[in-house]
Specification:
337 residues; Mitochondrial carrier fold; 13 helices; 0% strand; Mito_NAD+_Carrier; MCP_dom_sf; mitochondrion; repeat
Length: 337
């Protein structure tokens, strides 16, 4: 745990049936990794470490990650906002949509700037840092599962430290109960900056940091560990170039978000609170979420259907656009050479 003009070239509806093929391909995916290890054959253009002759590609990982995340964030923001309302108020999807509708279209994209900025930075850090760490851990590819997991885990830690303040501001902005008190991002920043130094961190910008750290590190590790093996396995089936990346990102995003969804709900609830009131511990916050959901798992997972859709579309688009830009960049460099 890719977004814009490329979508016109990507028939989204067609990739959902392809998800079913993942279960058929599951054993093939990991056989492919072993075959690539022995033969050295690369089906997809990967990182600089796997293309030692193209050193400039290493720095380009940051730019490609930024562009792909920017585009997918803008496209999927409406879905994200409905999911957030479900997480905060434990309401049905129809009620969340109706609540946003009654607030008026002028508030529909309220709160988009923090996620747009944070997700762009997220893509920059996530893909760029992962590529740098992977090259340090394994200078010569192909890379093992352990190296991909470790690089993904550490890149998720960097992402959490850098981007947690953006998510904090975004969650306050999206909470409909705080629109009167905090009508803009500036008003929230003024509130946080009125605290002392420790208060700015613990009660302000980094409230709910530990579940964010756990969610981001595990999510990044899962995504990068299985993205390439799934993509390579699908590429062997003779599918169009954009399908393996799209399905790989969709499958990874869906499974990762469903596994980590309780942490997502916990973060949303912890970060939506504001002020100097006594701040409960992580365990107390988790217990409160569990109690307010009637101690029922299905209420914790309320909004799960939209999470599947959002994760599939967001990570599918992100991976597909990133792969498209990567291929295009490699092709230009080959022509120049």
């Amino acid at each position: 745990p890719c977004r814009h003009r490329i979508c016109s070239a990507i028939p989204l509806i067609s990739f959902f049936p392809t998800l079913a093929s993942f279960f058929y391909l599951y054993p093939v995916v990991f056989r492919m990794e072993e075959q690539n290890h022995s033969s050295g054959k690369e089906l997809q253009p990967r990182t600089r470490a796997e293309s030692p002759g193209k050193k400039s590609w290493h720095s380009q990982a940051y730019a490609l990650g930024a562009v792909s995340n920017f585009m997918s964030t803008f496209l999927t923001f409406p879905i994200y906002k409905v999911v957030f309302r479900q997480q905060i108020h434990a309401m049905a999807m129809s009620q969340a949509v109706q609540q946003l509708w009654h607030e008026g279209p002028q508030y529909f994209y309220r709160g988009i700037y923090p996620p747009l900025l944070s997700k762009t930075l997220q893509g920059t850090l996530l893909f760029g840092t992962y590529d740098s760490l992977l090259c340090s851990l394994s200078p010569v590819g192909p890379h093992s599962l352990q190296h991909r997991w470790a690089a993904g885990l550490m890149s998720g830690v960097v992402e959490a430290v850098a981007l947690s303040p953006f998510e904090r501001v975004q969650n306050v902005l999206q909470d409909g109960r705080k629109q009167a008190r905090f009508p803009s991002t500036v008003s929230i920043l003024k509130e946080f900056n009125s605290y002392g130094l420790w208060g700015r961190l613990s009660l302000g910008y980094y409230r709910g940091f530990w579940p964010v750290l756990l969610r981001n590190s595990l999510g990044s590790a899962l995504y990068f560990s299985f993205k390439d093996p799934i993509q390579d396995g699908l590429a062997e089936q003779g599918l169009p170039n954009w399908v393996p990346a799209l399905v790989s990102g969709s499958v990874n995003g869906t499974i990762t978000c469903l596994v980590l969804y309780p942490l997502i709900v916990l973060v949303a609830n912890m970060q939506s609170h504001i002020g100097w009131q006594s701040m409960p511990s992580l365990w107390a916050s988790a217990q409160d979420v569990w109690d307010t959901r009637g101690r029922k798992v299905f209420l914790i997972y309320r909004g799960g259907s939209l999470v599947i859709l959002r994760s599939s579309v967001t990570w599918g688009l992100t991976t597909a656009i990133h792969d498209f830009l990567q291929r295009r960049s490699c092709s230009k460099k080959e022509l120049k050479d």
